[in-house]
Amino acid sequence: MPPPPPLPRRSDHPRRPASHRKPRRRRIGHLITGYALAALAGAMAQPLVTLLS
Fold first, then answer.
1. Domain that holds residue 48
2. So what's the pLDDT on residue 36?
3. How many whole angstroms separate alpha carbon 20 and alpha carbon 33?
4. What's the whole-model pTM score?
């Protein structure tokens, strides 16, 4: 039997949009979590700074 023809990968699975969308979501998540942690750390440290000063 002849080998099957190669499947067109570009039309079936566009790799670039999927690969570009996922890192953006992860980066946004990391930015949000990092910002939230920084805000919590600042909120926790502010009373200590006011008590010590």
1. 26-52
2. 96
3. 20
4. 0.44
Whether the predicted pLDDT of 48 surpasses 80: yes
Coil, strand or helix at 51: helix
Mean confidence (pLDDT) of the chain: 76
30 is a domain residue: yes
Q: What is the pLDDT of residue 32?
A: 92
DSSP for 12-47, written as a single string: H--HHHHHHHHHHHHHHHHHHHHHHHHHHHHHHHHH
How far apart (Å, rounded) are the C-alpha atoms in residues 46 and 7? 61
Domain assignment present for residue 17? The answer is no
Q: Is residue 2 part of a domain?
A: no
Q: What are phi and psi of 39, to 5 degrees?
A: -65, -40
